[in-house]
Amino acid sequence: MADFGRDVRKILSEHGCVFVRRGKGDHDIWYSPLTNKNFPVDNKIKSRHTANAIMRQSGISYRFKILISSIQNHGILMSRGFIVFIYFYGSDIWQNSRRILAAKAAEFLT
Question: Same domain for 18 and 48?
């Protein structure tokens, strides 16, 4: 599975957030000078949604997005190296949805 933990900590540090202490379980407590608040950061962040929630709590406008790799050629939607959507060869439904996916992907990445 993808691990966003290293990326989240790097971005937090670059924006002036500092590690405060160990929290309960596998969480750390960080401080954000942007919001003047402490917030928890999980040590094993597997979801981009969790990573984005941490960015919001810290007051940082950075958002993790889905990475899209060769939808037109391969029909595979990738999220940090993991296959999210695979089309079925010869499917009429795929032919229509492929154009929609490609348009949405291009719109999403701009």
Answer: yes
